[in-house]
Amino acid sequence: MNATRPIIEIKNVYKFFGQLQALHDVSLSINSGEKVVIIGPSGSGKSTLLRSINRLETIDSGSILVDGKDVNSKVNDINLIRQELGMVFQSFNLFPHKTVIGNLTMAPMKLKKVSELEARTRALSLLDKVGIREKAEVYPAMLSGGQQQRVAIARALAMNPKIMLFDEPTSALDPEMIGEVLDVMVTLAREGMTMVVVTHEMGFAREVADRVIFMDHGQIVETGTPEHFFTSPEHPRTQKFLSQIL
Amino acid sequence: MNPQFSNKPVKIDIGDGAAIPLKKDSGLFNAWWLTFFGAIGIIIYLCVTKPDPYWRILQFLPDGILVTFQVTILSILLSLVIGLFTGLGRLSRNKVINLIASTYVEVIRGIPLLVQLFYIYYALGRLELFKGLPPMTAAVVAMSICYGAYMGEVFRAGIDSIDKGQAEAARSLGFTRAQTMIYVILPQAWRTILPPVGNEFIALLKDSSLVSILAVSDLLRRGREFASESFLYFETYTMVALVYLVITLFLSKGVSKMEQRLNYYERD
Predict the structure, then answer these.
(1) From the CA of B243, how many Å to the nearest CA of chain A?
(2) Which tens digit of pLDDT belongs to each residue from B114-143?
(3) Cβ contact (<8 Å) for B169 and A87?
(4) CA-based angle A117:A119:A125, to the nearest 5?
(5) Inter-chain contact B169–A148, Cβ cutoff 8 Å?
(6) What is the mean pLDDT of residues B35-45?
(7) DSSP track, A118-181
């Protein structure tokens, strides 16, 4: 395998929702281990772009390669590609009919045929990592939002993905719970995980991002380091957006 | 705004089922209590004060009750299978499958059950393969085909009631469409599906009285047999009606208890 090849290659992607243009000629390369934070006003296409990477949204033209494989090609099994892409949603989407540990062990056992013992051992160590091992046997409905989101992160990690996608992971949380989720994400970033994060948390961006991307009207407007965005954003739309959220 | 809480089961209402008692009617003197124990009281009163003919009628009916339950249980099981596939068909993205399932539902819902029973019985009778088909089998097949369509709607609504985020989460982990349905959607949907299925069970039990026209010795047929021999039409049908009422009310209580129990992993 070519070590210098980007792990995610997005080329000239267009996407329409009816008349509405969600993505307009978006191109982006992300290297292994890189942490990319995507910001932008709502409706800017940032979530659509993220969801296109694991084909939860299908694109109308262009190409998206994950680890060299075209996610929209019939030749590749999308379900195998998705196993490499952990995803965390704004609304957690834990399986309410499974206990916390059941949420973590289900995919590895059913999809990778991991033994129950092995899956449980790994699940418990992941729960340790996100700081809620003691909640292993309870149902998600018994957890706070912050705890649920940490379980959701652990569930995605249980499949040993190469890349983690975060779609506004803290937007549905009460303010006092945002910190605990971001802490887990920072730890993950320190360990070298490749991460693509759609968020408004500029503090998080400043702490971990290698690159920040500002999107508006379905286009990438500006790209740079977090420092660049805090000190000298160039584009007027970026300046306007940052002045609103900072 | 916490979407997890929007997962509360949606209550599906599919028309002509039995009345399931509402939780707020749980006082001592509610309609259910009054009807149930009233019916039992009247049965006991009639049998004690006028054992002839009432006690004789009551002794004549149990065979029929058994057949009624047989038809009902076999039909409900078969219609559940038909209903699952119909419901999945109605949600399918494959246009042909979708059209077949929807057409089936439209056709069945547009024909009265009694007409369907006659039709399937005599239509099957004309086919060489089904010559001499036992009336009981024909009855079960006809009831299942009919109720399968209604059950299909129950499954469709139940599956549809599960938050789209559940399927997205499962697919993003690498589950296929079918695995997502089996491991994630259906295990959640059954809580929404079971109460209306119980409702359909009771409705089916009542509608099973129609099979008496196909020479199946169900509860109503046994009553007719007794009446035509004894000419005691009023007395016999009084007893038949009371027995149906007791069975139906007993079952509807069961369904409502089941509905309450199904919410075990909800936080209120």
Answers:
(1) 39
(2) 998 888 888 877 877 777 778 888 889 989
(3) yes
(4) 105
(5) no
(6) 94
(7) HHHHHHHHHHHHTT-GGGTTS-GGGS-HHHHHHHHHHHHHTT--SEEEEESTTTTS-HHHHHHH
DSSP, residue by residue, B163-224: -HHHHHHHHHHT--HHHIIIIIIHHHHHHHHHHHHHHHHHHHHHHGGGGGGGT---HHHHHH
> To which residue do tokens 């939002």 refer?
A145
Please report the sign of the dihedral spanned by the C-alpha atoms of residue A37, residue A35, residue A218, residue A19. negative
Q: Tokens for B140, please give them.
A: 């079960």
d(CA B212, CA B244): 14
First to last CA, chain A: 42
Q: d(Cα B221, Cα B64) in Å, to the nearest integer?
A: 7
Residues of A in contact with B187 (CB under 8 A): 97
* CB of A239 closer than 8 Å to CB of A214: no
Do residues A152 and A173 make contact, with C-beta atoms less than 8 angstroms apart? no
Angle formed at CA A65 by CA B183 and CA A23, multiple of 5 degrees = 90
Q: Hey, which residues 80-109 in chain A have their CB within 8 Å of chain B? A: 80, 82-83, 85-87, 89, 91-97, 106-107
Task: Tell me the torsion sign for CA atoms B11, B12, B15, B17.
Answer: negative
Contact B61, B240 (CB under 8 A): yes
Query: Which residue pairs from B225-229 have beta carbons closer than 8 angstroms and sit at least 24 positions apart in sequence?
Result: B225/B60, B226/B57, B226/B60, B226/B61
Contact (CB, 8 A) for B189 and B10: no
As a whole number of angstroms, the distance between CA A142 and CA B266 comes to 8
Note the pLDDT of residue B44. Answer: 95
The DSSP call for residue A222 is E
**pLDDT by residue (tens digit) across A137-196?**
999 999 999 999 999 999 999 999 999 999 999 999 999 999 999 999 999 999 999 999
Q: How many CB atoms lie within 10 A of CB B166?
A: 21
- Taking residues B198-202, report their average pLDDT: 91
CA dist B203 and B16 (Å) reads: 7
Say whether pTM exceeds 0.80. Answer: yes
Question: Is residue B40 within 8 Å of B168, Cβ to Cβ?
Answer: no
Give pLDDT tens digits for B167-193.
Answer: 999 999 999 999 999 999 999 998 889
Instruction: Please state the ipTM of this predicted complex.
Output: 0.93
